[in-house]
């Protein structure tokens, strides 16, 4: 059987964002784990407009090419990690929009979170994401990576300089995602 596909979704689209550097670090860590085929999905590159489909996503009657492409991308994924900032005690609108575009494509797939920000490290964003992803029949894992006061962990080029806690959190999350991906796969194929 082929390795499952892990999609790392970069939520921030803001110019000068930190999320891409964080996602690049996590991508390399995920590849090193050897458990997944790893894809980086950058919402800044996907460029979804604000929800513009005339039908409810549960009907899967997409009319726009960008929605059909987004559906095919997410359908291909077996597990996800959202790399998310925290904006005003929650996750950003771009990520919410990307989640809301689809319905069935998210079902019965595990999801983990790498969050970053100030003092909270994005934990409030993750709390909101746990509720939304659970309503999409995703399975959020407990393990994750929280990066408080992110600027102290970035070099001059914006790359993340992880500490031992970040690395061990990433490894624990990847191991749990691998277990759940195998356990949930029959639900999606059945």
Topology, element by element:
Blueprint: E1 5-10, H1 19-33, E2 37-42, H2 43-46, H3 65-76, E3 79-85, H4 93-100, E4 110-116, H5 123-135, E5 139-140, E6 145-147, H6 164-189
Parallel strand pairs: 1-2, 1-3, 3-4, 4-5, 4-6
Helix pairs in contact: 1-6
Number of DSSP-assigned strands: 6
Between the first and last Cα atoms, what is the distance in angstroms? Answer: 17 Å
Domain count: the total is 1
Rg, Cα atoms, Å: 16 Å
CATH class: Alpha Beta
Tell me roughly what share of residues is in helical segments: 40-55%
Alpha plus pi helix count: 6
Report on the biggest sheet.
6 strands, parallel
CATH architecture: 3-Layer(aba) Sandwich
What do we call the CATH topology? Rossmann fold
Output the helix-strand order.
Answer: EHEHHEHEHEEH
Beta strand %: 15-25%
Spans with pLDDT under 50 lasting ≥5 residues? none
Structural class of the secondary elements? alpha/beta
Can you tell me the overall shape? globular
- CATH superfamily placement: Flavodoxin domain
Please characterize this protein's 3D structure.
There is one protein chain. The chain has a single domain (5-189), classed as Rossmann fold (3-Layer(aba) Sandwich). It is 41% helix and 16% strand. It is built from 6 helices and 6 strands; from the N terminus they run E-H-E-H-H-E-H-E-H-E-E-H. The chain has helices spanning 19-33, 43-46, 65-76, 93-100, 123-135, 164-189, and strands at residues 5-10, 37-42, 79-85, 110-116, 139-140, 145-147. Strands 1, 2, 3, 4, 5 and 6 form a 6-stranded parallel sheet that branches. The two termini are 17 Å apart. The mean pLDDT is 96.
